[in-house]
Structure formats: structure tokens, C-alpha cells
Write a structure and sequence with these properties.
This protein has helices at 2-10, 35-49, 56-74, 80-91, 102-119, 127-136, 149-158, 171-174, 181-190, 205-214, 242-246; strands at 23-26, 140-145, 168-170, 198-202, 218-222, 235-236. By secondary structure, the chain is an alpha/beta fold. It has 2 domains: 2-34 and 123-246, 3-Layer(aba) Sandwich (Rossmann fold); 36-119. A 6-stranded parallel beta sheet has the order 3-2-1-4-5-6, sandwiched between helices. Helix 3 (56-74) packs antiparallel against helix 4 (80-91).
């Protein structure tokens, strides 16, 4: 497993020529903000508060429920509140906790998970390098995230990034989410850049890379954990590598 991850990281270089960019669009969760770490720590705290010991199968169950139901919200199939309730309906029985009505689930999510999640918010230590690289290259900057505005702006504030990443576009405000081409185009329009001269950087390969390219942008995969698809040439393992791509 380690060898496979290392092999992927070893492929983390742009193999094709980089055109002159006018703008960079950054993702938030998993790119600037350590969502995985905060979520995992919050689940561990929640599990302990329920009288159980943290375990890999509980991490996996929460991550799987989050991924599936967040995708349903992203695709416009359920509301943001309902996607959270669906996650709890699957997870609470694993903790031996009752599954209440919608109001009870909303309260449970906020008090038992979200409050703990907020306690563990942190950014990655390569974020400042990325912002410096964009500034040094004289490029316009925007942030595009598949989240709701209140929470995503709160994350930026907690990380000291409020007002430092250019226009902030959220799926909750746009009414559409990545990988829809319209949201990538909205980010380009927000900074007055042609999609063909805009680089999108994100950690979710199908959403941030495949989606951006389908919308006409250039995209690089931020593959922090060496889990990206084999054969993806435009890959970086850290935002510190962004400077070399923009020079």
C-alpha cells in the first residue's frame, strides 16, 4: 500500500507544457482546509462521548455516508439538511443511539457532530506557499467550494483566510455544485478570466479535475494522500509544488 502511494506521488509532476494562466481557482475542503482530519477527530470525540472506543469501521461508515449523501445534495436530489439527516440515520445505530424525527436529527447533528467538528478546524501548512505563489505570478484568485456559505466562510475566517482568496463562490449560493460546468464558469467570470486560461486546483479528482477540464479549464490534482487515479499526469502532492507550475 505504501509503495503504491509512493508511486502515485512520484508521478506528481505536470508532464505537459503549462500555458500562461490569468487566474487560479482553489477548492477549500481537502485543499486549504483539513476536512478529513477535523471530521475524523470529531467522530472520535463523538464515539467516546457515546461510551465506545474509536474504531476504523466507524470512521469508514461516517466517511461513506458523508460521501454518498453529500453527492445526493450536490446533484440536487435532497436538501442540505436532509443529506445530514440521512447520514445520521445510518450512523447513529452504530453508536447505539436512537434515531429521532427530523428536528431531533437536526439538533443531534449540530450538538453532537458539528460542534466537535468546529473544535478541530485547521488548515494545511502549505496554504501560505500557494497564496504566495499566486501573488508572485500576478494571477487573479478565486475560491470555489461545494458547501453552504455560512460554514465555508466560517472556515476561511478560522483559518485566517477571509478576504485573502478573492471572490468566494459556494454551491449553496449558486444553486449548483461542482462538477457542473456552470459553477466553474461562474468562478472564471468572477475574476474576469477565460476558462482556457484558468487553473483549477482541488483534491477531489472526479469533481475538481475531471469536472474542471470538461468545463474548459486546466486542472491539477492535489493528491495529498497518494490515492488519486494511476495515470493522472497533472498531479501535485503539496501546494508547495504550485509555484513551479505557475512560473
Amino acid at each position: 500500500m505504501a509503495d503504491a502511494a509512493q508511486a502515485r506521488r512520484g508521478a506528481g509532476r505536470l508532464l505537459s507544457p503549462v500555458p500562461r494562466f490569468d487566474a487560479v481557482v482553489l477548492d477549500l475542503d481537502g485543499t486549504l482546509f483539513d476536512h478529513r482530519g477535523a471530521s475524523r477527530a470529531a467522530v472520535d470525540d463523538w464515539v467516546r462521548a457515546s461510551g465506545l472506543a474509536p474504531a476504523p469501521h466507524l470512521h469508514a461508515a461516517w466517511h461513506d455516508a458523508e460521501d454518498r449523501h453529500h453527492r445526493a445534495w450536490r446533484d440536487g436530489l435532497v436538501s442540505h439538511e436532509e443529506h445530514r439527516r440521512r447520514r445520521l440515520r445510518e450512523f447513529l445505530p452504530l453508536l447505539g443511539r436512537p434515531v429521532g424525527d427530523d428536528a431531533a436529527l437536526d439538533l443531534e447533528f449540530h450538538e453532537e457532530y458539528l460542534a466537535r467538528y468546529r473544535l478541530h478546524w485547521s488548515g494545511f501548512d502549505d496554504v501560505e506557499d500557494a497564496l504566495s505563489a499566486v501573488a508572485a505570478a500576478g494571477l487573479r484568485l478565486a475560491l470555489l467550494t461545494n458547501g453552504v456559505p455560512e460554514q465555508q466562510h466560517a472556515k476561511l475566517a478560522a483559518l485566517g483566510l477571509a478576504g485573502r482568496v478573492g471572490p468566494v463562490l459556494t454551491a449553496g449560493e449558486l444553486g449548483l455544485a461542482k462538477p457542473r460546468a456552470e459553477v466553474f464558469h461562474a468562478a472564471c467570470a468572477a475574476v474576469g478570466a477565460d476558462p482556457a486560461r484558468t487553473l483549477h486546483v482541488g483534491d477531489d479528482h472526479p469533481v475538481d479535475v475531471v469536472g474542471a477540464r470538461a468545463a474548459g479549464l486546466r486542472a491539477v490534482h492535489l493528491d495529498r494522500h497518494g490515492e488519486g487515479p494511476v495515470g493522472e499526469p497533472e498531479r501535485i502532492a503539496s501546494l508547495r509544488e504550485l509555484a513551479a507550475l505557475l512560473r
